[in-house]
Structure formats: structure tokens, C-alpha cells
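Annex B.
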Amino acid sequence: MEEVTSRHFKVPVTQEDKDICLGPEGSVAHVTRIIRMLQGRWKLPILFRLYADPSMRTSQLKRDIPGISQKMLTQHLHELAEDCLIERMDFGEKPLHVEYQLSEMGRQLLPVLLATRTFSVTHPAK
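ArsR family transcriptional regulator: predicted C-alpha cells.
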């Protein structure tokens, strides 16, 4: 019986391993989904700003994130809320009073982002 080998420890070898890794509910699909949720020039700055303060108005975020346009801030806030990483709180007041805060899912993402930062620091770009 020929032994099945792999060039890399994480490469799936058997069909079952491939399904676990590459199938529609596999690791690749789940990691890809999270990366998609974070894609966009301003999403990470928004999230990290919300990690620092529990709740912020749009105008505060715009002031604290240099270079972001109102259009992109609004678009990324909407997308982050759609992906359940942040929550939009409308106070139902006139003039409009809306604040954003991290959702529970957004707070759970912080250790992942900090681990990613640690990985980057310990593996500098060449």
C-alpha cells in the first residue's frame, strides 16, 4: 500500500480532509467570509476606533479617521452593520442622533485582529 504524503502539513490529503477544508462549510469558506467582511480601506480603522470607545457618532468617527470621506464612512458603517460587526443605535431624535458601537460578534473579533497584528510584527515585510 502506497503511503499518501503531502508537501505541506496543512494540505488536505484524503477526500474527507478536502471536504473539511475546501467544502462549502469548510475552513476556506469560513475564513474567506471573514476576510470579505473586513475588506475595504476604512473598515479596520473604523473597527479599531470603536474598540477604543464604546459608542461613537458618525461625526466623531469622521474626525478621528483622517482622509475618510463621508460617503465611504457611511458605506463602510452600513456594510459593517449588515455583517453584524457593529450596531447602529438610532435615538429617534430630531435632529438625527445615531451612534455606532461594536456588536458582540465585533468584540469577539478583536483577539483575532490582535493575533493578526502580532503575526505581522513577528514576520516583518521584506
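The beta strands are 56-57, 86-90, 98-102. The longest helix spans residues 104-122. Further annotation is deferred to the next reporting cycle.
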